[in-house]
Amino acid sequence: MSSLSSLTALLQESGAQFRIYDMGRHINKISPQLFAQIEQGQKVYPSPYLHHAWLALLLWNPKQKLQNVVWFLKFPLDEQGHLVQAVRDDFINRLMTNINQMLQSADLNEAEDALKDNPFSFTPDQEKMAMFHAITHREIGAEKSQYYPACEKYYTGKSGWDNWQNLGLQGIAEVAVHLENSQTELVQQFDNIPDQPLIALCTCLEHVNIDHKLAAKIHTKLQQSIQKHADLSLSVALLRAAQAAPGKESKAAAIKLLLESPLANSAEVLTTIAVKASEQLLEPQLLQLFLEKLATGEAGQQGFSRILADLMFSEQLRQAILQAFRQPDRSAELSAAIGNMFGSNR
Questions:
Q1: Residue 246, Ramachandran bin (φ over 0: left; ψ between -120 and 50: alpha; else beta)
Q2: Do residues 262 and 295 touch, judged by C-beta distance below 8 A?
Q3: Distance, CA of 161 to CA of 163 (rounded, Å)
Q4: Other beta carbons less than 10 A from residue 170's beta carbon
Q5: What per-residue string of b and e applies to 189-219 under the rule 16 or more CB within 10 Å gives b?
Q6: Contact call for residues 128 and 177 (beta carbons, < 8 A)
Q7: What whole-number distance in Å separates Cα of residue 257 and Cα of residue 263?
Q8: Tens-place pLDDT, residues 83-131
Q9: Helix (H) or strand (E) holding 59
Q10: I need a labelling partner for 12 at 20 to 30 A (CA). Which of 25, 223, 231, 251 fits?
């Protein structure tokens, strides 16, 4: 590799400080060392989503940490899950003429235009953008937004449960990221939070770590939601939040609850498990249950094939799924769905 034939080398030589995040299924930090290995083809991308690597690069002036810029990049992966080198090189070539000048500038604001009309850039959805800003602002020592105080007050039961319509999504994301400030009170008040603000909070909690007490509250609330045939959106949001629990058992238990419930046929439930809880599907019994529900669910054959094609892009999940396909006790419905997926009804 020449000195500037990788994005890592380019950023290092620019003099800017940077951090790299995966933005696919969840928001997770990627170490510079791991990303360098990914770029060099030594490692597969750890969490592919829709056959792509979804990345966020946070860059800042080392002399002024609060002066920063974010690039959101989407790179295709090859069939083995490696970064497509030609695409990465094309991206670098598009930046080579001006990136060093921009990043070495005293004003990083110019760098925001670097990805204008770039085919590899993307814009995260509003929810994920709010969480990303909350996570990165904490890491660089930036102040919380103006929305945080009202949200923190609300979720700890200090402002009345009906007063949620004007809560800002950025503030809700910051409650999740700064959970240590309010987790004890949140656990105490959890059962009182109305469904809509609870859904908003749960979809933020999935990106952080929660303690056993909050995980237990989420699990109990999920049980109640299923029993009461409550809003499907609430059950799905609680499932997502449950994936932030410590320990695999708690995460898997939430999935099992939904897969054994009347909601198991829902395309939204099955897709959420595939996207947000795919790591838990490495457990053979849970995977078998998921496949059976997927084969008969409302997503149909098209959903079955598409969801599994995405999951099987991961080497570990591909091997687990292929092994599950060979189980002699699989149902006739699952056998038919597998046959249709591969163009055969055998």
A1: beta
A2: no
A3: 6
A4: 20
A5: bbeebeeebbbbbbbbbbbbebeeebbebbb
A6: no
A7: 10
A8: 998 888 888 777 665 555 555 554 555 555 565 567 888 999 999 999 9
A9: strand 52-61
A10: 25
